[in-house]
Design a protein that fits this description.
The chain has 372 residues and is an alpha+beta fold. Helices cover 43% and strands 10% of the residues. The protein has three domains: 7-61, Molybdopterin biosynthesis moea protein, domain 2 (Alpha-Beta Complex); 67-301, Orthogonal Bundle (Hypothetical protein af1432), CATH 1.10.3210; 310-361. The strands form three sheets. The chain has a five-stranded antiparallel sheet, with no helix packed on it. Helix 4 (126-132) packs antiparallel against helix 5, helix 6 (162-174) crosses helix 10 (220-227) and helix 9 packs antiparallel against helix 10 (220-227). The chain binds fe (ii) ion (FE2). Residues 175-176, 204, 229-230 line the site of fe (ii) ion.
């Protein structure tokens, strides 16, 4: 056993779910490997180590604190439940357009909102979870959940009151519900849309608005945010061509989150944009497409490389984000080199690393959150 700086010996009775083994766990008195190095412990494994195999101590990785990982696992469970609820609300049969939005669905959206807002104020790593919701197979309900996570992150940075945050979150969760009223073959068409198909897609804000208005329990704040989320600050958006502050505040926040998510997500016909390219685009669209005040709040709140995120560096090495710097594009990264040495790389404050940058998110080991 070497390098005690990055690992610690933990008595089996002190193990917690979420801790990661720093070495293989061997059954006492035998050569049998019970758990491989790098395993994330859960309660069943801990029970077996203690009760079945009489293991007394386990080497645990120190890099991310165990408590933090445990909190992330709890948050993941919540996001997983939220994703399932949203899938249910949006209707699991995509081929069947939605014609009604039930009171039961309204309550479910309120529950997901409470879950997200509680996570946000508890400082759960909501942005890391947001990345884990990105996968090739991208359904509208998943996009809506990510947009809601980003919208509330922006809302918190703008200092919105709790009741406004709740409206923002509900509207963001439902902003694209109108897409479920449109023929799925158009929505999921991989190539270029014909003019008629594009016109049909562009009806989704009104359709969503009408669907929710018919439900009867949504306030104007929420209905207008859904209706106006494709308006642009300079009046060139749709469906109404509203300008500046004619577009409600909540709609202007959701627009920022929506466009950023669309740019950085997988599409069947193109690669996702890099975080830097997307941020550049958002900056460039201030006061034409977007409200500049909201873009500033977005840039201040949004960490494209949240703590715990695996990233690929420009020299090909893979590392984990340990903390963020004032320049959010250049965080502190922990890297384990091929020769077994470890390196803490401060991309912003350490001149030795100025030529190094983050090339992409490393998705190879990412645990993506999927609905059941
Ligand atoms: Fe939309």
């Amino acid at each position: 056993m070497s390098d005690n700086a990055s690992m610690m010996k933990v008595r089996v009775e002190d193990l917690e779910s979420g801790m990661v083994t720093a070495d293989n766990v061997i059954e006492p008195g035998t050569e049998r490997v019970l758990l491989l190095k790098g395993t994330t412990l859960d309660s069943v494994m801990i029970f077996n180590l203690k009760e079945r195999y009489n293991v007394s101590e386990v080497w645990i990785k120190k890099n991310l604190s165990a408590a933090k990982i445990a909190a992330e696992m709890r948050a993941e469970v919540n996001i997983h439940a939220s994703l399932n609820t949203l899938k249910d609300v949006f209707g699991s049969d995509e081929a069947k357009p939605l014609t009604d939005f039930s009171k039961e669905a309204t309550q479910k959206i309120k529950n997901v909102t409470n879950e997200l807002i509680t996570s946000l104020y508890a400082d759960d790593n909501i942005l890391l979870k947001m990345h884990q919701l990105q996968s090739y197979d991208d359904y509208t309900y998943k996009h809506c959940l990510r947009v809601a996570m980003m919208s509330v992150t922006i809302g918190k940075s703008l200092g919105l009151e709790r009741h406004v945050m709740k409206n923002l979150c509900e509207a963001a969760l439902l902003h694209d519900i109108g897409k479920r009223t449109i023929d799925v073959d158009i929505i999921r068409k991989p190539g270029r849309l014909t003019d008629e198909e594009f016109a049909a897609v562009k009806r989704h804000p009104q359709n969503g608005y009408l669907l929710l208005r018919k439900n009867g329990s949504y306030t104007e704040d929420i209905l207008n945010a859904v209706l106006m989320h494709h308006e642009k600050y300079d009046g060139s958006g749709y469906p109404l061509g509203l300008k500046g502050e004619q577009i409600t505040y909540l709609a202007r926040i959701i627009t920022v989150a929506d466009v950023y998510d669309a740019l950085t997500s997988n599409r069947p016909y193109r690669q996702p944009w890099s975080v830097a390219e997307a941020e550049e685009f958002m900056m460039g669209g201030s006061n034409t497409h977007f409200d500049f005040g909201i873009i500033k709040a977005f840039l201040a709140a949004f960490s494209p490389f949240p703590v715990g995120q695996q990233v690929i560096l420009s020299d090909g090495r893979i590392g984990t984000v340990l903390s963020n710097n004032t320049n959010v594009l250049r965080p502190v990264i922990f890297v384990k080199n091929n020769d077994g040495t470890e390196e803490t790389i401060d991309l912003y404050n350490d001149f030795r690393y100025l030529k190094l940058s983050i090339k992409a998110l490393d998705k190879s080991n990412m645990r993506f959150i999927e609905a059941d």
